[in-house]
């Protein structure tokens, strides 16, 4: 029943959200196209529920060749476009993931989906648990590490910092969420996320 209620809420909220954001989304798309060459959307393979891969939707915030320089975004990354910097600071780049929620590959709330490279590092004791629920647009770990880019920028070795410090902490948080997830806990995370957005 919990899973059914959560999915029904996801369907309703994502459908309403996409309808409400249609016009603002078109404006954002135009700004992206005017700011730099390349597609409006950034699509990347992520690992979804039960380990099934899917392609996530985001508004593109970097140059089209950005991935060649690495997967991590560190501080004021030079690959980020002018419009992209604003989209990231207001989390607007995440809004197209409502498409993924409507399709069923994601949920509004759930562990953030990782690329296969980092999922391969998950300890077996946590991997099945974290991947037992749909990945989400936001989750408790996202709120805790909302300044992740700055933390990585301050590290001597950002890749090592992510693999050895941030990723294990995120996994522990995600595993805890997967055990206690419910519609009510999701609503709490959504309200906290909204509060963070409104406070900038």
Automatic annotation (TrEMBL):
InterPro entries: Bact_transf (IPR003362). It comes from the Bacteria. Residues 6-198 form the Bacterial sugar transferase domain. Pfam families: Bac_transf. Belongs to the bacterial sugar transferase family. PANTHER family: COLANIC BIOSYNTHESIS UDP-GLUCOSE LIPID CARRIER TRANSFERASE, QUINOVOSAMINEPHOSPHOTRANSFERAE-RELATED. This is O-antigen biosynthesis protein WlbG. It comes from Ideonella azotifigens.
């Amino acid at each position: 029943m919990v899973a059914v209620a959560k999915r029904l809420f996801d369907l309703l909220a994502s459908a309403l959200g996409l309808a409400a954001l249609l016009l603002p989304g078109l404006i954002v798309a135009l700004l992206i196209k005017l700011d730099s060459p390349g597609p409006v959307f950034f699509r990347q393979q992520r690992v979804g529920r039960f380990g099934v891969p899917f392609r996530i939707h985001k508004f593109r915030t970097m140059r089209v060749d950005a991935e060649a320089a690495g997967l991590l975004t560190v501080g004021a990354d030079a690959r980020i476009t002018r419009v992209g910097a604003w989209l990231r600071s207001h989390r607007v780049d995440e809004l197209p993931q409502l498409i993924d929620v409507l399709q069923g590959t994601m949920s509004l709330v759930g562990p953030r989906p990782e690329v296969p490279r980092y999922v391969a590092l998950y300890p077996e004791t946590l991997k099945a648990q974290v991947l037992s629920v749909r990945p989400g647009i936001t989750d408790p770990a996202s709120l805790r590490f909302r300044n992740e880019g700055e933390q990585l920028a301050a590290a001597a070795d950002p890749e090592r910092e992510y693999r050895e410090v941030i990723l294990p902490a995120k996994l522990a948080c995600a595993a805890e969420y997967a055990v206690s997830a419910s519609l009510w806990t999701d609503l709490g995370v959504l309200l906290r996320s909204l509060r963070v957005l409104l406070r900038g």
